[in-house]
User: Fold these one by one.
Assistant:
Number 1:
Amino acid sequence: MKKSMVCMVFVVLLIFIGSAGFVAAETLKIGVVGPRTGTAAATGKSFTEGIKLATDYVNAHGGVLGKKMEVVFEDTAGSPDKAASGFERLVTRDNVVMVLGESHSSAALAEIEVANRLKIPFIVAEAWADPITAKNYKFVFRAGPSNSGVVNETIAKWVIHEGFKKAYIVAENTDWGLGIGKLCEKALNAAGIANKTVVTERKGQDHYTELAKIKAFNPDVILAFVYGTGLHYFVAQAGEVHLTPKAIILDGAGPPSLWPDFWNNVGDYGNLECLVSSMHKDVELTKLATLFRKNYEKEFGKAPTDYKSRSIFDVVLIAADAINRAGTTDANALVDALEKTSLTVTRGQVAFGTTKGGPEYHQWMPPMLVIQWQDKNQIVLYPPAGATGSLKHK
Amino acid sequence: MFLLALTNGLVIGIIYALAALGVSLVVGIMNVVNFAHGEFYILAGYFSYHFANTLGMNYLAAMMLSVGLVLIFGMIIEVLLIRKTYGDDLYSLILTFILSIVLQNTYLLVFGPYPNKPPNWVKGATNVFGQFYYGNQRLAACGAGLVVIAIVYLMLKKTWFGRMLRATSQDREVAELNGVNTTALNMLSFGLGCALAAAAGVILSPIFPVTPTGGMAVALTAFVVVVLGGMGSFWGCVVGGLIIGLVENFGAAFISSGYRHVFGFIILIFVLLVRPAGLFGNREI
Amino acid sequence: MLKGNGLCKNFGGVAALNDVDISLEKGSLIGLIGPNGAGKTTLFNAIAGAFSLSSGNLEFNGKSLNGKSANHICRLGIARTFQVPRPFAEMTCLENVLVPLVNRSRVGERTALLQEGREILDFVGLGNRDDILAKELNLVEKKRLEMARALCTNPQLLLLDEVLGGLNTQEIGAAVDLIVNLSEKRGIAVLWIEHVMGAIMGAAERIIVLDQGEKLMEGTPEEVAHDPRVIHAYLGA
Amino acid sequence: MKNTKVILACIIVGLFGILPLGLNVYQQHVMIVCLFYVMMSASWNLLAGYTGQVSFAHAAFAGIGAYTSGILAVKAGLSPWLGIPLGVLFAAVIGFGVGLLCLKMGGIYLSLTTLGVSEIFHIIINNEYEITRGTMGLQVPGLLVEYSKTGYFYIMLVTAIVSLLVIYWMIHSNIGLNFRAVQNDEKAAASLGVDVIRIRVLAFTVSSALAGLAGGVYGHYLLLITPEIPSLDQQFLVLSMTIIGGMGSFIGPIIGAFTLEILSEYIRGYGEYHVLVFGLIALSMARFAPNGVVGLVQAGWAKRSTS
């Protein structure tokens, strides 16, 4: 009997320890959400790099509201429920005034609900699903690509530009993959380009069966919307079965083709692969972009590869700018300030859309590039204005 | 399509059998299911990647060294964790389950989140039956898998060590009475089980690059194969691997590729309903 | 009361029981002997429903036992002990006997059952061990607990598997008295496997001898002791 | 003696009743998650700790409860107040089936088969994304019209207390006695008239139903049902909590759930390291103190009373 009493007391004690208050902050905190663990943990690493550079930059230029800015990076592991609770934790435990980041659409769709409920401004960086902004939530912004933006402005135009006749769409079963796959289908149908779609599992390793189906269709181009390691398997195996280089693969996300191990994993089969990116050393749009590259090389001793480190850098700058212009941390004032944003970041000048009704609301779409790997060099193919070369077939 | 599914099924089946062999061995001898089997596989993959790519070793030497290191690591784990659990199979299952999560997160920390791939042994692809191209590396891995399976078979049947293992797996007490040092044998056979996982890892990682969390899928397939074939049965393991490989590939080709892994589970459940001890199992459960 | 005809049991091609007939009357005390591996425990397992027979018929009070599960057979009135005691190690002695008591009748006050359990523990000589975990008992006590649990099922037929092994002379005497007492006073039929010959020969009315899965003979202790086949089976060649 | 226990329980429940007054929103959230894990661990303990059936499908049953109710709410507009009981029922039916399937299996065969069941369930969720929305997660309506942490806290508290009462009643009745007999020695139990089949299937059914209940309420609290609820990671947490608290004791899983959930909230600050720290604690507990905190306290008590 006494034993269980001791146990009970133990439980109660724990609860009260757990409930102990937290020390008030001396800095101004901003939250970032993103995958630090899980299948896309590489994105977390890029985010960490970008956050480091952005924090240094902001604090060297006077901080926010006279205080030092501190960024709390909460792990979402790429899963919507961890994302939602992580978001909530940032707000309720760390008292952040604004939340930024995210690279998984599924996670972002869960987070915008929390942002809306808690009335905390949330700037999405790299989650592309249209509904994120199409829901027209007052507190949700996106300073990054949207599926429809990428498809209509870049991918579909590029496919038409290169004169491809038959396309195969490979979509992973996530909000991003399925969403962008559908949009591609629509755009290609509108352009009269024959196409087919196959849905794959995000964690799949063996793609021989799908590849056999694709090969039977004999496409000119394969639009692959598979994120992470899955893409590496896909590219390598497509090469093995001689699907490429006859058909050209486009990595519809980009970063996996830029990860350090891409070449090691796909070998020669990576040659002539195309990818979507927002960063290329020969196409720096602003002075800040050059500065970013310089600082990055100084800080980490290598050239930036994954463009997501630069995306989060931009978003942190946008947030700091909005807070300083608002002169307060009041959420409504921050939204007002964000809506009036006119700031030049690495990817150009940011201005958020304010027309309600569609995905353009609170959306700023940075310019995207289509790049082809040609003998391990990145050649910009599209848009034609920035092109540094042209598409190579075998 | 049919021939492709058949070829892929056989090749993947051999690979599954190889991955399951270590689990089966450890179950047979020690009645311990090593939940962290896949993590040993992954560890060997990382080792061979770093030896070959970072240190520039010859790939064959890198593979050998990786398997050896995992063998030693396995024996250390046996001493630290498994030794205490003998006789309580669920206790060891729970311990190794927690171990697998710990290892996954350690790998994430040490090796980073990126997929790592040791160099291919061979390049290109072969045209099979004049129908389709099939990666040479896969064919080579299948061959290497067969070689390892054959070596294990010979070791079990022909060597003194193998006889001792079989004696112990049949009746531990009698073996002890006959002077077999079962403590040392347990350590060795657990290490050997891990080394087999490692062998599968170094053979497969050029095809399926390793990631910190990739081990769970490997272990799951290995468990399905082992339970299907019958715990501790050598031939059960080989036949089970082939069945699962074929069923999954035909299912994926002709029914639904999304449900690829479910087909294996369904076969498993049917077999267990008819033969609760698996295809080749005769042990009372 | 118990009737078995042509009982056979194969394990992977090896016949552990081969065409064994057995018949028991109410209140009788029958010994079952035979060398190691003769199939004695196999016969017990078959009667108690631990596994099903390969062929043959078993009847108890006119009801077929074929294919019945162990717990069903127990409720019909057949209880058993195990050669190596199998107490519920992590439960107290009282809880050990409470298990058969609560399953015997679904109704019944917990307090009344506890009272009955204590009495039975008392009866087998574990009166002061109520709250001890079964794993802490010594071998002799474990065997007594085994017996107590079997009695708690309120059996008409009790299958005892080597209950005397490891006991000293004095303890053997007490145990035999207890078993004879069960059979005579309570009218429980007992089928008893034993290696301690002196004890079983003295106590049993009749003896069944098994050898290599077959019934060698059945008779009074006197007849069995002098039968050359039995002597041959035990001493062997 | 019995009275002190009842009074103590009442005091603790009472303390919990006024707890939200002293907590901020974040702490209330942590308490709600704690209560979810209390339900999960306690019901898994009923199965694994009391009948020795170490199932790896427990998180999957929470998922069945959550998805049943969630899909009914999204596709048929059914109120979660009706959906959750239906989810519980469905989880119980599936639990009954899995219990039957695993009847002939003991020990590790059962564990591996339940692992397979859990994996099948996972694959179905991922593939039928048109219904379940796959890894994207199903956004579901809440239990309350106006979202309120305090409200959810009380809902979770009442559900947890009801679950714990059911479990407490079971393990202290004849059923619990039979559970332990089956766990200790299935064959001996059968020979003493215990209907092993009934007991094992009953344990599976009840435990699954309670997991379904926990999952359903939790899903409608998060407003988002994802494959994380029925994941192996979740199963890992539940298993660790039970073992660290003390498997096979009523209070153990409750202690484990609170300790580990609060601990994990603290170490979450270490980013990538938190799961590792968590795993190492669980591993050393399982290795050196397999009876958990309760076992340690009991051992300490026994030592003091003998010396």
Number 2:
Amino acid sequence: MCGGRRDAVAGRDAGGVRLGRRGERTTESNMGLIESLKFIWLFLPNLMPREFYELGVMAVAFLAVVIFITLMVLFMVWFERKVVGHMQVRRGPLHTGGFHGWAQSIADTLKLFLKEDIVPRGVDRPVYILAPLIVFMSTVVAYIVIPFSKSLVARDINMGVLFVFAVSSVTTIGIFMAGWGSNNKYSLLGAMRVAAQIVSYEVPLLLSVLGVFMLAQTLSLSGIVEAQKHVWYVFLQPVGFVIYVIAGIGEVNRLPFDIPEAESELVAGFHTEYSGLRFAFFFLSEYANMFVMSSMATVLFLGGWHGPVLPGFVWFLLKAFSFMFLMVWVRATYPRLRVDQMMAFCWKILLPLAFLNLLVTGLVMAAV
Amino acid sequence: MPELKTDSLFINMGPQHPSTHGVLRLGLTIEGERVVNVFPDVGFLHRGIEKLAESRTYIQTIPLTDRLDYVAGMSNNLAYVLAVEQLLDVEVPRRAEFIRVIAVEMSRLASHLVWLGSFANDLGAMTPLLYCFREREDILDALEILCGARMTFNYIRFGGVARDATPAFVEKTRKFLSTFDKRVDEYEELLTENAIFVNRTKGVGLLTREEAISYAVSGPVLRGSGVKWDLRRDAPYSVYPEMDFVIPTGETGDVFDRYAVRVMEMRQAARIIRQALDGLPEGDFTAKMPRVLKPRKGEAYSRIEAPKGELGFYVMSDGTASPYRVKIRAPSFINLAALPAMSKGALVADMVAVLGSMDIVLGEVDR
Amino acid sequence: MTPLSQYLALGAVVFVIGLFGVLTRRNAIGILISIEIMLGAVNLNLVAFSRFVETSTLNGQVFSVFVMTVAAGEAAVGLALILALYKSIKAVFADKFNILRW
Amino acid sequence: MTTAVFLIPLLPFLGFALTIFFGRRMPGNVGAAPAIATASISSVLSFATLFYVISGRAVDVSYPWFATGDYLVSIGVTADPLGALMLVVVSVVGLLVEIYSVGYMHGDTRFSRYFAYISLFVFSMYGLVLANSFFLLFIFWELVGICSYLLIGFWFEKKSAADAGKKAFITNRVGDFGFLIGVLMLASAAGTFQFKEVFHAAGSGQFTPAFLTVATIFLFGGAIGKSAQFPLHVWLPDAMEGPTPISALIHAATMVAAGVYMVARCFPLFSASPEASLVVATIGGITAIMAATIACTQFDIKRVLAYSTLSQLGYMMLGLGCGGYVAGMFHLMTHAFFKALLFLAAGSVIHAIHEQDIRQMGGLSKYMKVTSLTFLAACLAIAGVPPFSGFWSKDEILVAVRQSGNTTLYVLAVAGAALTAFYMFRLYFIVFAGGEKKKAHESPAVMSVPLAVLGVLAVCAGWVGLPWMKTNIVSFLTGSQAHGAVGAAVQAVHGATAQLQAHAGAAAQGVAGAVGEGAHAAHHGPDYAVMATSLLVVGAGILLAYATYMKGWVSREAFSKRLPLLYKLLYNKYYVDEIYQALIIGPLVKLTRGLSGFDLAVIDGAVNGTASVTVILSRAKRWFDLYVIDGLVNGVAWLTQLFGRVGRRVQSGYVQQYALMILIGFGAILIVKFLR
Amino acid sequence: MNWSELLSAPLAFKMLAAAAVVFAIGAVALKNVFHCALSLAAMFFALSGVFVLLDADFLAVVQILVYVGAIVVLMIFAIVLTERITSASVRQTNYLVIPGVLLCIALLAGLVSVIRASSWPSLESGPQQDTIKIIGRQLLSTHVEAFEVASVLLLAALVGAVFLGKEITRK
């Protein structure tokens, strides 16, 4: 009993990558190093108060996620630049690091990290400073539940999807904080647009996913992936998938829905006043958010880690990056919508369509 | 949410802003997202070209004109040269006239391409910009072969042009033209057939025919509003009367019409260049001119259909080696006056589209 | 294990803080914020009871779902009202909304 | 299959929703598309259901809906032979009428609204048919009534139409009141609304006979209203103010049959109570003969048909009342087809010459071939000429009545048959034969095709009840089917499947004869005496009509001249409306007048008298008032003002201060409570 | 209630409770309304942490989704529309502070004494439950009427809010 309670305290078994603290789900190899690490892992709780241990585990897990995201984002930025470049008869980064400019993102990041930390006068200082952190955190936390493969998931809670949407909705607040805290009219306009947009597009996004829940009969991400063992939901829920793609792009504020930071209108929207490290956080979280959206698409519609021959997480990443590629492709192709058109599109087309999809799904399920 | 307005907000768009294409300041009064008032504030790039000309000789003024509309320098050269030639009473050789037409139309293409790319970029489509610059690169390469410069040409001179058009230039131009029409089709596929683009531009920034005339706008902005007015046909100069081309016009005068007019003009310009290349006569590329130019006392006004509209040069000579007074009628400047009329009730995003559709160049606005 | 009484005490403290806010904030939005705090405290009590008493039906959790629904509706209408008032009297302070006084 | 059965009513509802919301945006005839599309799918499903039921299975599902007190109200459908038969009738007639209406209503300003109403009606009718509990039955019963009201008054700009709608609605309310009482009596006694359980309770003798009789008679009250039986029949003729397709669909074929259907559905109850059955039979008989006599004297084509409908409904009731469960339903089915046909044909005529008075018509067969042919087929069917459908079903009823042993009713029934033949052919001869009065033209295909389809049905629908066949509608409805054989019989009649056409084609007669030999023990064989009688009287009726209106051997005015009083009585429909006016409405009006007079004279007088007394008294009091009371009052006012001046400080307008006060008050109450 | 018990409570509860109280105080006491709204969001986060402790993980997530994702955003919207960053200097409390404090302390004392006086059931060690499933069942069976009424209420609120918002533009 006591153990069960305590698990709840620090967020269940709170591990990083599931190494199997209790050993029951360990399917990894049996190398000596891992064995010894495991021993230490199992022994650690005896050395300190339970709470410190839990916190420590959380910290380690968090750090792992952050490092993973950073690497992922670096790759994604490079990936996008290459893809967009080739679509626009350019070549994208070429020189830094030798092979096709692979180190370009790293160089850019370093540059951002080394820049002067500017806090303009007249800003709401605590808000201004906290905003990028909150935006970043809210995206990072979502990674905790994403199942990269059958065993590679930080925490498999039984309402993973809701969790992801809940924490990503916090992004809105962070962005609002940035817009308000900057004390800049462009930022404020951008923040208001962003809030309106995210709040609106969250509705069809969630509705489009409801069809998947109905089919899978679970909210657990792993459970949903398991349910797609034989047929991906993109085939059962094509309309839902399309709505998801559109609303997802809207949710992460990318072209053609990048209205909040439309550089030709609002300069840079809510992060106009940010530079250096703080800007890097926004940048990081934008791409991290894209990856969350892609991962969710993979999990919800594209069968997650299922696939022949290759190991699960490779399939997962392949699918997620295919979705990423779609987003980049869209970005290279379309102009930006106007704010009213975007809202009208959301409320007048996506939302009814999502409801219809839900209705049809329900009817079909009832009929079968 | 844009409907949820409370107080009106005043924001400065520019002088440093990504979509003012230079140092234009727009004072916007907005309520939520809706623009209730806009006034353009110009003069940040004032270089006093008109005044400078008074202390230069006639020929030294030509390079100054290159800096007016710096994406279409040839047109500025031609307009100025035509004005001075009226005072000089010089006979321009036929070959030179043809080369001038080719050069000016190439400049028109370059200008429209820059406009198209940046306009699409203003609307958020990044790709057309790079496509357009790819085409423009070819044009600039060709012009480089012609006169050695890529942007500040200083090419069209009194009595003719600076250098002859070499076969290399002709070949390069033909090669460029052979692919150009297909490329324009490609842009139209990317934009004209794109629902988002059409939604962003149709019915936005309306300028009625009457308003257009009363604001004295010219060029594609005027034609977009449905007025069939083109100086190449209505006040012909050079050898344009020999060319066969169509003057495209719009219907409603919205952003889309202005866009469509320019795209169609690009096709027509290519057609004119082809005709000019085919009919390029042999002969001198310049008339015999004295070393020191001292035009007769008097005044002259010339106007041509520049890419942006009617570009006019008023030159007053007192018989000395430098002009007494030069006044430039810059199309961008006059067109800009119609901006508040066009952007009544627009959203902030529409402002960008409207401003982009006017195709202003600040070098010309502020002079 | 944390006993029920401590959850209830936390609920009471948060509730009273919210009440204090309702009584003393001048800003109407601040009052709404305080009301949300009170509702949050109520939710806490409901959930605590549902954990400790009659665990199988989770009635307390269901009730707090309803409380959240009501809170959402209240926030939407309340804020719309405040904005409407702001439009007419250019202030959001509750002590400016006193045209109903003698 | 359950899903399909659920879909049958839901599809028209979808059509209704689509049309009512988006109909106005649909141009031209498109407004009819959702209605017709959904109705067609439902029809297909209905037929599927019929064959499913024929194959010996049934659908009967219920889902709990909500519970009030001890009652668990469930929502569910049942598709048994009775329901399936009715489904097919409703769907066929409904679909054909909708198609017909496209032509008839073409160009009407509320074209789409019309189709929305029809869809709603079809939905309700399906619901009514499929309902498996009294509760649902009542809901759809009322929905059907609403639709009827809406559609009768569809051209509400016409005062007469609006009045007719109101009349129908109010008259129906009287019957429905009885129905509701009956339902509630049964439900409260049986503890459930479910048919099955109520019937079971009745069958197991759970109710006392007297209770059962009263309850069923109340139930029958609903049927009287809805099926326009004798005392409440007055609304139906007036309902002809609605569009003619509506008359065909609602006021001839389906809705008015709902009463009959309900009686058939509740047959276990009625059969358990002989008294109630007798009431049903008597009311049916009276209605049948009364309406038939009236029909002989009317001149409005639709009214003639309306009275004919009344008469036929009376027949059905008569059949049911005499224990002819199958007979009644069989006649309901055939009647639905030929009566719909008659109305639609009449509509075609009206559409063609814009005239309803038959005295203005004549010789139309020359212009309207399809219409007159189909009309003739329907006339033959309704008159009961073999082998047309009406003959077989009417024969069943006559047999049932005869077997019940009630001679009076039997005579009434036979007389009714003769009259039916007479007035129908009177109508036919006047309208279609003889000299032409007006030029006309055939109606468009969209109208004439349904006519033709219904014509075929009017001829053939009766063959499912050939008494020689072993497996016919009788065995189907009474539930003792031999699967394959029944399927073969029914399908042969409908000529549906190729596989079975071989059998059918060989010789329907032969098959029928063969199985007829071993006629089902549960049912009688053909009763040739009855057949002969009915043929005889029908022949006489037709002959009389022919003689009078075709050849003129008998003067048309002969009857009105010879028996002017009787003619006047009939022409004025037995003065029922006037009697109602005199007996119910008049007295009510008088009573209210009297009450108002009483109010004016006595009560107002008293009041006024009191007033004058008061005036005198008050004068006396004035002095006292002025000097004694005012002093007090002013003093009180002064005090009030004093307190007010102090107290208004409390009314600051600050919400939060109020909240604080409330809290303090709350605390005070708590303290008081705890200190006690 | 025993105060020493509080000290023995698990660290997580202590931390979350402290955070909830601190942020709640922040939400009612900060001068800048924008900060108040942020503090409110933080308090809801802490409360949803407490919900997790109470095995109400569904509610914890929904709380974040509804309060932080929607209600606080709405409030911030309203704040942004009505406030300027500089208006933080305006007096934010009314003259009821002192009576308010007194009253609240009295109420708190009353509540705490009642809580201490009562005896509460101790934790039943119920098996780990699938809360979503149970809540879903409950919502659509036992409480279905309330559920429907709640949906109507939301709709009414939505329409009302839109109407009021429209009123603003009409002028």
